[in-house]
């Protein structure tokens, strides 16, 4: 196995110099809402203050701003890949990270030089430690996510990127990223999520997400229920922002998942045989019909599922609005090359576990996204018989558990590591109430071992889903296992 394989190597290891480790420890001394969420603690005063102190690093280059309950990471990755294909040096700011926090700040998922990260770290620490004592900082000190967002501004400026894509962390209106002035805003599907902080209806949540819409700035929006559409239309009208809904400007988005036997894309006729005997390369033929383009876009996506085709359309339209000179052939190539860790990512573990065909990692954590994952498995006719599942405590576990009622294999429940707060008893009750049998253990490392071992014995695939943090723990486990075998 090549030690550069993305799921084996902690790609940030090369940057784990003493300076970066010291900087990460410094960051971790600040309040982290991802680990310890709190109410009524969001505002933009801090970001505005430090952005100004940093000579408006937030306005250094052209930007895209991406919000939504689902699809933010995929849409951001699609945009970055298209711009890279167009030879535009592009910064990408996303969350969460899988193995190393530097994954959040990259040049289209490739790390910048060590000097960029170290010099930006020095600049940020100096900026914060030399800040004047202002009243609002006494009321609520700067937080981890605000610091990392500021760090991304400084890294991108140090690296002299020409364009940057910023994925919203939570909500939109008061998110730390909402101090940029983008060329285009994107909003993905709206679902009930983080209701304690964003509101208990999709309409209230839409109001928060719609807070990224800027004056005279185009906004491209995924399919939404009509009441949500009306909220976005109202905000856009108030901001004099051109608004484009995917389902209104795309007459058709069609997909077909297929298996290719090699990188030359020769189709393999027997999907099940390919999955059992060879590491499968799954792709999705996608066609996007929209009046925004002079012709139909045709591409072969590595990211699978109907929702990914919609994310691709969202990204393609956003790029075309921002850079109309980019050829459509370049857009198609950029979409085709897009990769994203933890989104229906299939790991080639056969060189470690000879009997195990593959492991599918998907950070899906809402009923809609989990349903899409299961639909993709079904469409591709993949031989998935075992499940490893964990989720954070704020997820809609009753609705998610319902989706696994017909799952015929063994189900392993656990917690998603130690970063996110979770409630395993609540998960157990949800699965039990649906009459679903399972094996449960709060020792997530042992459960990872159990689930992989079961799949190894069954010679079937393992689906890992429910949380990106669980995905990260599985990658760490396999990485450590590989190093032990080396």
Largest sheet: 7 strands, mixed
How many DSSP helices?
18
Oligomer: single chain
Summarize model confidence as the mean pLDDT: 88
Beta-strand percent range = 15-25%
Q: How many E strands?
A: 16
* Widest β-sheet, arrangement of strands: 3-2-4-1-5-6-7
Shape: globular
Proportion in helices:
40-55%
Helix/strand structural class: alpha/beta
* End-to-end Cα distance: 10 Å
Rg: 22 Å
Query: What ranges have pLDDT less than 50 throughout 5 or more consecutive residues?
Result: 1-14, 264-277
Question: In words, what does this structure look like?
Answer:
- This protein has helices at residues 18-27, 45-53, 72-85, 114-129, 135-139, 144-159, 195-198, 202-209, 226-239, 246-249, 271-277, 306-322, 328-337, 367-379, 397-402, 424-433, 444-458, 468-485; strands spanning 62-67, 90-93, 105-106, 163-167, 184-187, 219-221, 243-245, 250-260, 281-290, 297-301, 345-347, 359-362, 384-389, 410-413, 439-440, 461-465.
- It has 486 residues and is α/β, with parallel strands linked by helices.
- The strands form three sheets. The chain has a seven-stranded mixed beta sheet, with helices on both faces. Strands 11-12-16-13-14-15 form a six-stranded mixed beta sheet, with helices on both faces.
- The radius of gyration is 22 Å and the shape is globular.
């Amino acid at each position: 196995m090549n030690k550069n394989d993305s799921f084996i190597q902690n790609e940030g290891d090369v940057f784990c110099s003493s300076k970066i480790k010291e900087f990460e420890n410094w960051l971790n001394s600040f309040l982290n809402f991802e680990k310890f969420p709190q109410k009524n603690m969001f505002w933009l005063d801090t970001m505005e203050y430090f952005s100004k102190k940093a000579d408006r690093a937030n306005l250094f280059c052209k930007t895209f701003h991406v919000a939504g309950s689902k699809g933010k990471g995929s849409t951001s990755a699609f945009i970055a890949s298209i711009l890279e294909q167009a030879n535009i040096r592009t910064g990408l700011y996303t969350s969460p990270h899988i193995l190393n926090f530097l994954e959040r700040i990259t040049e289209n998922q490739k790390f910048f030089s060590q000097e960029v990260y170290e010099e930006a770290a020095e600049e940020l620490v100096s900026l914060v430690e030399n800040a004047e004592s202002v009243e609002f900082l006494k009321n609520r000190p700067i937080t981890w996510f605000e610091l990392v967002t500021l760090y991304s501004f400084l890294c991108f400026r140090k690296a002299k990127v020409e364009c940057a894509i910023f994925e919203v962390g939570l909500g939109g209106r008061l998110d730390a990223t909402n101090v940029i002035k983008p060329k285009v805003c994107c909003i993905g599907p709206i679902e009930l999520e983080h209701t304690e902080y964003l509101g208990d209806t999709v309409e209230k949540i839409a109001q928060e997400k719609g807070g990224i819409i800027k004056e005279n700035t185009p906004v491209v929006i995924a399919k939404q229920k009509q009441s949500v559409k009306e909220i976005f239309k109202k905000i856009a009208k108030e901001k004099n922002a051109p608004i484009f809904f995917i389902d209104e400007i795309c007459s058709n988005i069609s997909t077909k998942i297929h298996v290719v036997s090699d990188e030359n894309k020769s189709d393999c006729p027997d999907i099940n045989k390919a999955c059992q005997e060879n590491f499968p390369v799954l792709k999705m033929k996608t066609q996007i019909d929209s009046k925004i383009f002079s012709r139909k876009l045709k591409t072969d996506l590595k990211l699978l599922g109907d929702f990914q085709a919609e994310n691709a359309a969202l990204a393609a339209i956003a790029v075309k609005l921002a850079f109309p000179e980019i050829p459509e052939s370049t857009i198609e190539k950029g979409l085709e090359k897009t990769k994203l860790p933890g989104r229906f990512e299939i790991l080639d573990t056969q060189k470690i576990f000879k009997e195990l065909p593959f492991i599918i990692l998907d950070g899906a954590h809402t009923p809609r996204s989990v349903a899409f994952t299961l639909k993709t498995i079904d469409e591709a006719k993949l031989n998935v018989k075992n499940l490893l599942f964990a989720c954070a405590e704020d997820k809609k576990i009753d609705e998610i558990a319902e989706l696994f009622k017909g799952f015929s294999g063994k189900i392993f429940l656990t917690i998603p590591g130690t970063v996110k707060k979770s409630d395993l008893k609540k998960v157990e009750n949800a699965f039990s109430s649906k009459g679903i049998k399972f094996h449960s253990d709060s020792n997530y490392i042992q459960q990872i071992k159990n689930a992989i071992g079961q799949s190894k014995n069954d010679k079937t695939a393992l689906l890992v889903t429910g949380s990106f943090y669980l995905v990260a723990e599985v990658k760490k486990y396999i990485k450590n296992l590989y190093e032990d075998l080396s």
